[in-house]
Amino acid sequence: MKLIRPDELTIAIEALEAGELVVVPTQRWYMICANARDNDACARVYVGKGRPRSKSLAYILPSLVAADELFIMTPAAIQLASAFWPGDLAMFLRWRDSEHAQQHEAVGVPNALVTLDSGLLGQLARRSRVPIAATTANLSDPTNTSGPAITAAEVERFVAESEINVTYCIDGGISPLANHLTIVDCTEPQAKIARSGVVHDRAVNAAIAAESEPYAN
């Protein structure tokens, strides 16, 4: 694995489009990325992490427009997207097209784990010609209390331990939040928090409640 600078993002994009794996920093953690339509590349992520196939990788949206084109956005999902995207919240959403969904099995079918990132990961999704699947750079080991990588040095240790074949890691310094995406299940009309994270539960509930409140005159 070679460390590259944030201004060398184009190199990482070319590697992804060629079926290789790259690691990108976020405010939360370093994320290992693959072409979401490349079953072999995504399988290497699962095997390297020891991640159960039942746990979806995250689909990194290129834009809000793409969210509406690809997924069924419930009123609650629209409110959450308006309040927190791009940002540190993800949603479980239903695919609009079942055939299209089957081409992205690693991020979930019939429901996908979807987010719109505000940093380098979002830039990667916007500029890439292939859809991006991502997950944290760490072994999926319940006995591992240190959590996902928050520095490039920790990514290097993960790669050495897992023997996963990562081509590039963008060195973005320290991820200051060291916390997970908040995940909200928006596959049904009544949205539910599936996992607490950076975006506080109270903020999520306030955004959802705003959808049903009339505007004051």
Write up what this structure looks like.
The protein is globular, with a radius of gyration of 17 Å. Helix 4 (75-84) packs across helix 8. The longest helix has 12 residues, at 201-212. The chain has a single domain, classed as DHBP synthase (Alpha-Beta Complex), CATH 3.90.870. It has helices at 9-17, 39-49, 64-70, 75-84, 98-102, 120-127, 152-162, 201-212, and strands spanning 2-4, 21-25, 30-35, 58-60, 71-72, 89-95, 111-115, 132-136, 166-170, 182-185, 192-195. The N and C termini lie far apart (58 Å). It is built from 8 helices and 11 strands. It has 217 residues and is α/β, with parallel strands linked by helices. A hairpin with a 4-residue loop joins strand 2 and strand 3 (30-35). Strands 1, 2, 3, 4, 5, 6, 7, 8, 9, 10 and 11 form an 11-stranded mixed β-sheet that branches.
How is the secondary structure organized here?
Elements: E1 2-4, H1 9-17, E2 21-25, E3 30-35, H2 39-49, E4 58-60, H3 64-70, E5 71-72, H4 75-84, E6 89-95, H5 98-102, E7 111-115, H6 120-127, E8 132-136, H7 152-162, E9 166-170, E10 182-185, E11 192-195, H8 201-212
Helix pairs in contact: 4-8
